[in-house]
Amino acid sequence: MQAEEEKYPRITDDFLKKLLRSDIRIYYSTRYLNDKLYLHYKGFHKIENLSDFTGLKVLYIEGNAIEKIEGLENCTDLRCLYIQENCIREISGLDTLSELYTLNLSDNMIRSISGLSNNQKLNTLLLQRNSIGANGLQDILQLADLKSLSVLDLSHNKIDDPEILPQVLEKMPQIGVLYLQGNPVCKKIENYRKVITYKLPNLKYLDDRPIFEEDRRFAQAFAIGGIQAEREERKKWQEEKEAERLRNHLAFREMVEKHRNERVEQEAAKSSESTTMSEGSSDEWNSSNETPEVSYIGSRGSETKSEDELPPLEEVKIEDIPFITGVRNEDKEEKENFTSKLIVEEKKEKKEEEFKGTKIMIEEVNEGVEVKNEERIVCEEKIREEVTENEEEKGEKVGEEEKVASNTEESEEILNPEIHKLDPPSKDIVEQRLNQIASQEKADLELLMRKQQEDLDELD
């Protein structure tokens, strides 16, 4: 037997040392300081060498081949034991684990629930996919002794006795989550869900669905008066929900109206404050300034009267209403005069600059400033064109008078075409033309200068 056990992995001292060194983020090398231990899916057949883990609170040892719960006597602070998916046939070895809170024994070969009398703090017991109930109701009777149990999973077992409800479950009113699906008893209890909901007042979750408040009310009505009472309760519940919806709607409208009224009051208060401030400022201004005199400028001449001396409004005709000027009109006129003065000064400065430029140009002409080379070339080209046009006109007139010329003369002209070629204008002609242009330019500048002087005189 011992030789056979040595073939399988074991929780040896060397294995534990290696495990504690494998991940320093999870484990301490000092064994009693560790509160978690992961031994799942290793192929172990036996729980051993855990006596030094006295501070252990959570043990993951699922997915092995363990046949018996043992070796946990010194782990008195253990809170959670995950030992599912093993080969355990009987619940035992948990007597010293008085602090045990969660126990997962799913997917084992357990036939009856026992060995849990000392685990009174147990809150969650998971026993799905076992063989519990094969021997009848006696396999689950010990559940009634677990007064702190709140979550119980007995799904997919062999429980088929309907007496589980009165003899076991009704004695566990603290149950909040119950899984019984997959057992033959679910088909044997008539109106299974309604009955379980009615019998267990604190149940919040049954099998694959939660239990809501209306579900409990319908179940209670059904248990008391049958299907007709349940229908009436459903109708009553719908009316209550509609009334609640209407109340919420009215409350929301009231809240919106209240907020709107508060906002209107705030805006009114702000407007009254601004009005008070404006009245105070106007009173202060009136007290600090005397009543201005009003000047009448109309058809009857201009005279100055106070506001008290004004005629009644009923006696005044529209055509006799004079223009009224006061302190504010005088300020406006002063501002307009200042603006117009600035505009005049700007125009004057611009005209003075133009006048100075014209004067300089006249001085340059008087001093005999030569025309630029480009301008001289342009002038020469223009004069050549004019002289050429004049010569051509003269040639046309002479040609008309000498139409009777002989053929020999025409042949000579053809052989000597340069005898009629026009000579370029002489230098004297160009100079004469340029002097004419300069004189005309000087006259134009003097005229422009006189006009600018007149504009300056008008601005002054």
From TrEMBL:
Its main location: other. Residues 259-270, 302-317, 394-404, 418-427 have a biased composition (Basic and acidic residues). It is found in: Cell projection, Cilium. Residues 259-317, 385-427 are annotated as: Disordered. Pfam families: LRR_4, LRR_9. Coiled coil: none annotated. SUPFAM superfamilies: Outer arm dynein light chain 1. Residues 271-280 have a biased composition (Low complexity). Keywords: Cell projection, Cilium, Leucine-rich repeat, Repeat. Residues 283-292 have a biased composition (Polar residues). This is Dynein assembly factor 1, axonemal homolog. It comes from Blepharisma stoltei.
